[in-house]
Amino acid sequence: MTQTPPTISLDGLSKRYGDHVAVDDLTIEVPAGVVAGFVGPNGAGKTTTMAMLLGLVTPTAGSGTLLGHPLADPAAYLHRVGALIEGPAFYPGLTGAQNLAALATVAGHDRGRIGELLQLVGLGARGDDRFRGYSLGMKQRLGIAAALLGDPDLLILDEPINGLDPAGVHEMRGLIGRLADGRRTVFVSSHVLAELEQVCDWLIVVDHGALVYQGPAADLGREGAAIVAVPEHDADLQRLERLLNAAGHDSEIAGAEIVITVNGSEPRRLAADVNRAAGAEGIVLAELGPHKTTLEDRYLATVNGADR
Amino acid sequence: MTRTFKAELLKLRRRRILTFAALGALAFSLITTIAVLLSAEPAGSGPEAAGRGPTLESLSGAGGIAESFATGVSFLGILVLVLFIANFAGEFSQGTFRTLLMRQPKRIGLLAGKMAALLVFAAGALALAELFGVLISLAFAPSQDIATSSWLTLDGFGEIASAYATALLGVSAWATLGAALAVLVRSIPIALGIGISWSGPIEHLTMDFWAGAAQSLNPR
Fold first, then answer.
1. How many CB contacts within 8 angstroms connect chain A with chain B?
2. Which domains does chain A have, with CATH numbers?
3. Cβ neighbours of residue A279 under 8 Å, at least 6 residues apart?
4. How far is CA A92 from CA A82, A117, B10, in A?
5. Which of A56, A87, A106 sits opposite B3 (nearest CB)?
6. To 10 degrees, the CA torsion angle through A139, A145, A150, A152?
7. Which residues contact B140 (CB under 8 A, 6 or more apart)?
């Protein structure tokens, strides 16, 4: 069985502006058909990386392929890529539909799909309004409609959720989920992981231009898994912590509970050890279970860990 | 380039733009034709004596039919410069050039297609302005006692064609200057500042300096 090659494959990609390193030796792969979140703090190099993928910025070093074609030849793959980068930029005096018609003409795409795409992004009733009258959410959605004009195999969306109100964020997340129909790869950036958490199945985390994590979203920060123990009486907190540390467990007090890092142990066995040790000292545990962290917590821990 | 050309024409073919261009051409023709015909006086009796304007006699010749258009177009340079700077630099300041580049990565092709479409549009507007100028001149000349018998002749049509070609050449030159400035500095106010400074005092100073230098080097 042949394995599908990655949609995006970068090898040591770097971009420097004088002394400033915007992207630092980035080596990543985005498998075909996934929704890949490209996450990092502001200034982490996300937009610069995307601009290099789209041929808008020339890399200082490194190489890569997009849809099997080298980055150095964007003309070979751009017709299969739809993108929204650095915010939606359209002609303010043209209507949404006219803007899409102009872009479809430049790209050689079928203009007959414009109505269908406006419907898809929820602008069916506003397609004949001028772009300058659109709200930010409508502009973002028109940007996505424009990116979809050529029915692309790869969709690159740069911070599509940025600046949207909660309802807009919810709508946009739903839209991104709908666009990822299993056939198309979506590469979407954000500086707030929580915005993408529900739609991403693959994550690439960058900070200061360098890679911090890449892989399945569910695996991010998994090595930092922990269990939490809550004694019946707060007075037992410090005694239990000392007891666990003396037994060789990595534990610390966090509020009214003790967090014990799994550190490669079997979580179930560790929980049993903790329960046994507490019981032997006459400490009754009111709670004992997995330490529940959100993907955002694990992302922040990963980025902060990389900073250290 | 062809696709960019078609996309730009798509934008220019909007009813609002076409109406604005037609009304502009009509207003331009009305103002220039009436101004030229009203200001014309017999040879040796007015400002034309200093060689600054057409005379009633020159207007009665075959070239009279396109005189007002030719005179008016000579004032269009700055307007063309401003329009092209605004159009090209606007692509950069609005971010639409980046949007286009993601569809067609060849910058030269994008700029050339856009330039070609805008020049075609300008050529159409000039043709319309000249047509209006000819019609208004034909309607207005008798009231100024200007003979029009030699206007609708082969020579007259030749003068119309010649005035059009000259106008198109001039507009193309100003358009190229405007587009080049816009692409180089990518900012409407800075490009306008440079363009207007050049077309005003700097150009005249340079020409005066050049003429003075040529005269001193070649006193004959």
1. 64
2. 8-218 (3.40.50.300), 226-290 (3.30.70.270)
3. A285
4. 21, 19, 15
5. A106
6. 100
7. B33, B34, B37
Render each residue's pLDDT in chain A as its tens digit; 308 residues: 456 788 999 999 999 998 898 998 899 999 988 899 998 888 889 999 999 999 889 999 999 999 999 999 988 998 889 888 888 889 998 999 999 999 999 988 888 889 989 988 888 888 899 999 998 888 988 988 898 898 899 999 998 887 777 877 888 888 888 887 768 899 999 887 777 777 888 889 888 888 888 888 777 766 567 888 899 888 888 888 898 888 888 888 888 888 888 776 777 888 888 888 888 888 898 988 877 666 667 677 766 665 55
**CB-based contact A49:B58 (threshold 8 Å):** no
User: CA nearest A214: which of A54, A31, A2?
Assistant: A31
The first and second tokens of residue A19, run together, are 């002394």
**Extended strands (E) in A43-92:** 61-66, 69-70, 81-84
Q: Do B7 and A98 touch (CB under 8 A)?
A: no
Q: How far is CA B151 from the centre of its chain?
A: 23
Q: Is A5 within 8 Å of A32 (Cβ atoms)?
A: yes
Selecting from B11, B94, B106 the residue whose C-beta is nearest the C-beta of A89 gives B94
Nearest by CB to A90, which of B7, B96, B103? B96
Asked if B99 and B68 touch (Cβ cutoff 8 Å), the reply is no
With a cut of 0.90, is the ipTM above it? no
Contact B14 A98 (CB under 8 A): yes
Nearest chain A CA: its distance from B114 CA (Å): 11
Among candidate residues B162, B164, B195, B200, the one with its CA nearest the CA of residue B178: B195
Our CA-based measurement puts residue B108 at a distance from the nearest CA of chain A, in whole angstroms, of 14
Question: Could you tell me if B88 and B4 are in contact, meaning their C-beta atoms sit under 8 angstroms apart?
Answer: no
Q: Quick check: B103 and A75 CB within 8 A?
A: no
Q: Which two tokens stand for residue A145?
A: 């409609």
- pTM, full prediction: 0.72
Residues B162-211 pLDDT 10s:
999 999 998 999 999 999 999 998 888 898 888 888 877 666 666 666 66
Residue among A279, A239, A280 at smallest CA distance from A258 = A239
